[in-house]
Design a protein that fits this description.
Pfam families: NAD_binding_9. There is one protein chain. By secondary structure, the protein is an alpha/beta fold. It has 3 domains: about 200 residues, 3-Layer(bba) Sandwich (FAD/NAD(P)-binding domain), CATH 3.50.50; about 130 residues, FAD/NAD(P)-binding domain, CATH 3.50.50; about 70 residues, no CATH class. Strands 1, 2, 3, 4, 5, 6, 16 and 17 form an 8-stranded mixed sheet that branches. Helix 1 runs parallel beside helix 3, helix 1 packs across helix 16 and helix 7 crosses helix 13. The radius of gyration is 23 Å and the shape is globular. Bound molecules: flavin-adenine dinucleotide. The site of flavin-adenine dinucleotide (FAD) has 31 residues, from helix 1 and helix 16.
């Protein structure tokens, strides 16, 4: 019934870091707008990443790298200085480094995002309201967008923005049917870790940063038994250090394009750095600023080559581990308690008092059974919206309002984030930001990506 529809200027679907930073940027612009952020979680600004309660679940970059203000790289360091002065995060004082070099717990970063929202609200003529619900459907016409919430309520706005973040791989129909979801412990469920027998063997699928979080939680929960980790390539994230600056060699040579050329040149630069006694992370870190351009310029064949040949290497070298977590993983490896094996997961074997999984080790034909007392699924993110079993992605696909992005990573959009529909038409009303744009930019999830996109999208939405 139209009477019950609430109206707004901008409807932001998802109130994690992306949705919240978009709201902050809209509030900072002149004018008077009403913005609704629809988010089922109790608090805005957190999402999965910044809802962490474990102090050991830290950002994977130091404060100087994690500002949410694209115009002020020191924003987080400045906020953190005040937070520590006020008695927050007392454990930070045990680390003898400048505040800009601290790796803040992600839960504290959530407080920072929330405070930036509160400040922007207090200073703005515009308003932001949090509607606690899940958006289950969306329609678009020439002049507006209309959302349906899981409580039946309808909202209408001039624009809608998909800031729906990342969907865990564990929620896809494929893993549902293999039984992994039912058997596995949530890698961020700190309470569930305390219920695991401390001397038992724990199996973990996936060896990225989520696995690192899970190992931190197991240790905190008092687990002292073996940890067996299986991932396709058996690669661990490297530890993040603070390398010195290095010449931006990609800016100096724009002819470098194909994944093969790029990889060869990055390796060459790393060797030069190491020969001079400089950390290989210095040249690698210069690549980050170019990755969106390189990815969006690449053809489908090159993108596939990158995903097949470079991705595992990029993930383990670029998405690096915070130092304290990396030290823990290294210590457990040295003690022989933690083992990483290159093996693919081939299914779960039902059993009452244990978890048994089938794995095929790299280079072997046979499938081996491995048993443990608990299984943690940290195998990552599902970027293909066709496989996300949530109502909104399914409805958007069914209505033809979106189409899969390149390589089916997220959804297609133009450079401003305007969503492309099933017929290739660029929407004037529906936008996306953050992880849904993975296929457009490759890197579209980190704090800095989100912060930059939020500012640009706010300007785009208010330009008329
Ligand atoms: C565990 C973890 C740790 C991370 N650590 C770092 C880090 O250290 N450094 C870094 O740079 N990046 C990190 N990231 C990347 C991280 O994704 C981004 O920094 C940021 O959280 C992305 O924000 P987002 O709002 O786009 O997504 P999310 O945080 O996933 O938030 C999306 C929100 O949308 C909501 N939502 C989804 N669908 C609907 C719907 N239909 N209706 C209403 N609401 C909906 C969800 O409830 C969720 O709260 C981490 C990610 C994870 C998962």
């Amino acid at each position: 019934m139209t009477e019950s529809i609430r109206n707004a200027d901008v409807l932001i679907i998802g109130g994690g870091l992306s949705g919240t930073m978009l709201a902050v940027q809209l509030l900072r612009l002149p004018g008077q707008r009403h913005i609704l952020v629809i988010e089922p979680r109790a608090e805005l600004g957190r999402g999965e990443a910044y809802s962490a309660v474990e102090l050991g679940h830290t950002l994977n970059g130091n404060a100087a790298r994690m500002s949410v203000d694209p115009d002020n790289a020191d924003d987080l360091t400045q906020w953190l200085t005040g937070y520590l002065d006020a008695g927050g995060w007392p454990q930070a004082h045990q680390q003898p480094v400048p505040i800009s070099e601290l790796f803040p717990p992600r839960g504290i970063f959530g407080v920072y995002a929330q405070q930036r929202l509160a400040e922007a609200k207090a200073l703005s003529a515009s308003t932001v309201e949090h509607i606690r619900a899940e958006v289950v459907d969306l329609i678009v016409d020439e002049t507006s967008t209309r959302l349906t919430l899981d409580n039946g309520q309808q909202l209408r706005g001039a624009y809608a923005v998909l800031a729906t973040g990342m969907f865990p791989a564990a929620r896809t129909p494929q893993t549902e049917s293999s039984g992994v979801n039912a058997a596995a412990v949530d890698p961020w469920d700190v309470q569930a870790m305390t219920r695991i027998d401390p001397q038992s063997t724990v199996l973990i699928i996936g060896s990225g940063l989520t696995m690192v979080d899970a190992v931190v939680s197991l240790e905190q929960a008092g687990h002292r038994g073996p940890i067996e980790i299986f991932s396709r390539h058996g690669l661990l994230p490297h530890v993040r250090r603070q390398p010195p600056s290095w010449e931006d060699f990609l800016a100096a040579d724009p002819s470098l394009r194909s994944p093969r050329q790029l990889l060869r040149e990055v390796r060459r630069q790393c060797r030069i750095a190491q020969a001079q006694g400089i950390d290989w992370q210095a040249p690698l870190d210069t690549v980050r600023a170019h990755i969106g351009r390189l990815w969006s310029q690449a053809g489908e064949r090159e993108k596939r080559q990158f995903v097949r040949h470079v991705r595992p290497w990029w993930e383990s070298h670029h998405h690096r581990s915070p130092p304290l977590s990396a030290q823990l993983v290294a210590r457990l490896q040295e003690e022989g308690r933690l083992r990483i094996q290159a093996a693919s997961f081939k299914g779960l074997v039902a059993s009452d008092d244990a978890v048994t999984i089938n794995v095929r080790r790299r280079g072997e034909q046979v499938v081996t059974q491995v048993a443990g007392a608990a299984l943690i699924n940290s195998s990552g993110i599902e970027y293909d919206w066709r496989r996300v079993a949530r109502p909104l992605p399914q409805q958007l696909l069914k209505r033809g309002l979106i189409q899969p992005g390149p390589l089916a990573l997220g959804i297609a959009a133009d450079v401003s984030g305007a969503v492309v529909d099933a017929e290739g038409k660029v929407s004037q009303r529906l936008f996306a930001m953050g992880p849904p744009l993975r296929g457009m930019w490759w890197e579209s999830t980190a704090v800095t990506d989100v912060a930059i996109q939020a500012k640009a999208l706010a300007a785009r939405l208010t330009q008329r």
